[in-house]
Specification:
heterodimer; A: alpha/beta; Rossmann fold; 9 helices; 47% helix; 24% strand; globular; B: alpha+beta; Nonspecific Lipid-transfer Protein, Chain A; 2 domains; 5-stranded mixed beta sheet; 8 helices; flat
């Protein structure tokens, strides 16, 4: 038995140092068809969840925004339009495959000038203190090895008064919906993953990692412990997804 | 939570509405400069029946709709859905704002400017038809549509006038506007005369009282 610290990777207990590499393998595997799978899995609703995130971000012209685990750049593209040419959007992702897909997609759309692409780990953000007006992380926090460390890192790079928005799968608030959601996650998603990306294991991990992720109130408490104030959350689609918001004092 | 309904539904409804509005605005390119002038404005519409908050962010590309807004708004209006419809379709938005049931807070001039842009949308159906059907067929279909709309507008105007005439003059179901205005004028005059008579009677009563005393 190793005496190294462990964490969860889906339902498995793995050494902390190994998790980032294992998560990276998952995303290397699905990067090329990530957008297609998101649309298929959520029936396109992920766009609505992200739209609500943008509404709640309060981002305006000339703001600096950091989109962590930005993946294929859905949020970054919208933020770039909102902040305008005098603003700044940083699309950060730990995974180079995802970052490359995101960068190619945004450049193909003609998005450039106010967007930067940075390969970065959410736990060790390579930015000076008080750099951003808004930090977002959409469907990425559950893949981070140490969530508390990542939250503290996000707090550090936010300007005073800046907002953190965490969009993440959460706990359905209705027992019937919860049952249906479990069946969908563990039976339908892996099959869909096998058919579209030829990789059912990654989508099995997705379902498991969602169950291991802290529920709404636990995450809110973690944000408060990290130093955020005015923490609140909004359940969406019956709690399948929750949007947490905290402010740096 | 800003609304009682699930944010997913609220946001989805606004996204669909925004797509529809912007599609219409794209077919009316002359509206774009008017919207661009309102780029820094935010309009808050607080509908009380049904309960719904919508924030309008005009820009050079169209209008962005949001269910929440962090920050100050240029103009905030509150009222029922029917009041908003009345304002949106009004030919004199300033009068509607003053005389209607809407509660207004903030600067009304940008709101009136926005209403004018939206109320005077002149949608050009020819461009999308030409790009779908080709130059010749697209133009022909657009002509037919234009004639149909123009005939429909005329027919609707004519029909409204004839129905009005029938109700007022032929069937005498309701008096014409001028008769009603005359009647109200007479009524007002009668009211004034009664008031004068009442004060004369009061004066006489006081004089009689003083003579008896």
């Amino acid at each position: 038995m190793s005496d190294k610290e462990t964490t969860h990777f889906g339902y498995k207990e793995v050494e902390k140092d190994a998790k980032a590499g294992m998560v990276a393998d998952v995303f290397h595997s699905v990067a090329a068809r990530y957008d297609l799978m998101n649309d298929l899995m959520s029936g396109g609703i992920h766009r609505i969840w992200k739209r609500f995130t943008i509404e709640l971000s309060g981002v305006r012209k000339k703001n600096a925004v950091l989109d962590i685990a930005g993946g294929t750049g859905d949020l970054a593209a919208r933020f770039a339009a909102l902040v305008g040419p005098e603003g700044r959007v940083v699309l950060a992702d730990i995974n180079d495959s995802m970052l490359q897909v995101g960068r190619d997609k945004l450049l193909d759309q003609g998005q450039q000038g106010n967007i930067e692409f940075v390969q970065a780990d959410a736990q060790f953000l390579p930015f000076p203190d008080d750099s951003f007006d808004c930090v977002t992380i959409a469907f990425g926090l559950r893949n981070v090895t140490d969530i508390n460390m990542a939250l503290r890192s996000m707090l550090r790079v936010l300007k005073p008064g800046g907002r953190l928005l965490v969009l993440e799968f959460s706990k359905p608030q209705n027992a019937l919906l919860s049952k249906a959601y479990d069946t969908y996650s563990f039976r339908v998603l892996p099959v869909m993953g096998r058919l579209v990306t030829n990789d059912s294991e990654s989508y099995q991990y997705l379902a498991e990692s969602i169950r291991k992720h802290p529920d709404q109130n636990t995450l809110k408490d973690m944000m408060e412990d990290a130093g955020f104030c005015q923490c609140e959350y909004h359940n969406m689609t019956g709690g399948v997804v929750a949007l947490h918001r905290g402010v740096k004092a | 939570m800003t609304t009682a309904i699930d944010p997913t539904l609220h946001t989805a409804a606004l996204a669909a509405l925004e797509a529809g509005v912007n599609r219409a605005l794209n077919l009316a390119p002359q509206s774009k400069p008017g919207l661009a002038r309102l780029e820094d404005c935010v309009f808050a519409l607080h509908c009380t029946a049904p309960t719904l908050d919508v924030y309008l962010h005009p820009n050079a590309e169209g209008i962005r709709l949001a269910g929440t807004h962090q920050g100050t708004v240029t103009t905030s209006i509150k009222g029922e859905a029917s009041d908003f419809t009345e304002l949106a379709t009004s030919s004199d938005p300033t009068a509607t704002l003053i005389n209607g049931n809407l509660e207004l807070d903030g600067d009304s001039a940008p709101l009136v400017a926005l209403q004018r842009v939206l109320a005077t949308l002149d949608i050009d159906w020819e461009a999308p038809l030409v790009s779908t059907l080709g130059d010749v067929a697209g133009h022909q279909v657009a002509q037919i549509l234009r004639h149909t709309f123009s005939w429909g507008k005329q027919a609707s105007k004519g029909l409204t006038r004839q129905i009005e005439e029938f109700i007022h003059e032929e069937a005498r179901l309701s008096p014409p506007r001028l008769e009603v205005e005359d009647f109200y004028r007479d009524l007002q005059e009668l009211g004034l005369r009664v008031d004068r008579m009442q004060s004369r009677a009061e004066r006489l009563r006081l004089r009689l009282q003083s003579l008896q005393g």
